Amino acid sequence: MVLRIGVIGTGAIGQDHIHRITHSLTGGEIVAVTDVNSEQAHAVVERESLQAKVYDNGHDLIQADEVDATIVTSWGPTHEEFVLASIAAGKPVFCEKPLATTAEGCKRIVEAEMEYGKQLVQVGFMRRYDKGYRTLKQAVDNNKVGEPLMLHCAHRAPSVTNFSGDMAITDSFVHEIDVLRWLIQDDYVSTQVIQPRRTNLAEEGLQDPIIILLETKKGIRIDTEIFVNCQYGYDIQCQVVGETGIANLPEPPSLQMRSQAKLSTDILVNWKERFIEAYDVELQEWINSTVNGEVHGPSAWDGYVVAVTTDASIEAKQTGKIVPIEMPEQPAFYQDAKAEYTV
Ligand code: NAP
């Protein structure tokens, strides 16, 4: 069976997902698209040679008979309404992060999905599909370093434009929140934000770098440096310190050179390049599980946890205090989510 997909939002990542589903992946076909910029939606249909109808708005697209499932890649503040509409229509939906821009909004989605009675929502946290993170998780799950005690992480980008306020948390740290909780299978209980000496190379108004300290229910301590003007490259680090050893996130493959009295390997500079394979695997697994009527990836509950942790971290940054993260118990409805992957 081919999954007939409607895409809401044909901007940067919407176009990427349309391209990969049409040219690289199997089992999915883009049959409908929409964007507030309808000229852009038409241009994408033409460029990708899609047999797809361009809808005036996301709600008509969701209702369309030929659409089996939706992908929401529009502007963040519109995600909640389109995810809720997909649930109301009983259609599976893949929503790019954020699931909603507020924790309350995420909670409304969780409640709507539970009331519908079946999981339909997957959130676009692609790091869980990265080969390196999966290798690291396999080592942790197989007790290769004993029980995790501490995680030392870093999220560095060469530079950013139009990053202000709390975007280091809302746009960068959100990925760490999701992937680290998945990696160690534990929940967060508190967050604290440290603001070191500020780089002169950040845009006016942006505190860069920051260090975020999370504590989990089991007492695991996680420190994450977010440094989005580090200049030298796009560099994601994760080290798990366990009772019997240390496991590091593998570096992306790179040619090792011995030349001019130097031993060197390249460092990537672009986030898209770093996670390009992860996006492919993520969407392929979403298509496969959706065809089977299942959700295997990050759930609406996971999106809600990220939103609550994000809000608490913003409060921690603003107040300088350790802020508790208060989450209700994960409902049984979300507990048997399957992990389907091979390394
Ligand atoms: P973008 O290039 O601005 O694309 C968003 C598109 O949605 C734009 O074409 C926008 O039109 C359109 N849009 C806005 N409101 C709409 C509506 N009501 N109905 C239909 N289309 C609407 O942004 P992007 O970089 O693709 O990001 C899209 C989402 O993906 C964001 O939430 C972002 O956080 C997320 N994202 C996730 C990752 C990841 O690593 N997982 C990476 C990149 C982006 P206008 O431009 O005319 O407003």
TrEMBL record:
EC number: 1.1.1.18, 1.1.1.369
Domain Gfo/Idh/MocA-like oxidoreductase N-terminal, residue spans: 3-125
Keyword field: NAD, Oxidoreductase
SUPFAM superfamilies, per the entry: Glyceraldehyde-3-phosphate dehydrogenase-like, C-terminal domain, NAD(P)-binding Rossmann-fold domains
InterPro entries: Gfo-Idh-MocA_inositol_DH (IPR050424), Gfo/Idh/MocA-like_OxRdtase_C (IPR004104), Gfo/Idh/MocA-like_OxRdtase_N (IPR000683), MI/DCI_dehydrogenase (IPR023794), NAD(P)-bd_dom_sf (IPR036291)
Pathway listed: Polyol metabolism; myo-inositol degradation into acetyl-CoA; acetyl-CoA from myo-inositol: step 1/7
Domain Gfo/Idh/MocA-like oxidoreductase C-terminal: 137-324
A Pfam short name: GFO_IDH_MocA
Catalytic activity: 1D-chiro-inositol + NAD(+) = scyllo-inosine + NADH + H(+); myo-inositol + NAD(+) = scyllo-inosose + NADH + H(+)
Protein's UniProt keywords contain Oxidoreductase: yes
GO biological process, one term: inositol catabolic process
Role of this protein: Involved in the oxidation of myo-inositol (MI) and D-chiro-inositol (DCI) to 2-keto-myo-inositol (2KMI or 2-inosose) and 1-keto-D-chiro-inositol (1KDCI), respectively.
Subunit structure: Homotetramer.
Record-stated family: Belongs to the Gfo/Idh/MocA family.
PANTHER family: INOSITOL 2-DEHYDROGENASE, PTHR43593
Protein name: Inositol 2-dehydrogenase/D-chiro-inositol 3-dehydrogenase
Lineage, highest ranks first: Bacteria, Bacillati, Bacillota, Bacilli, Bacillales
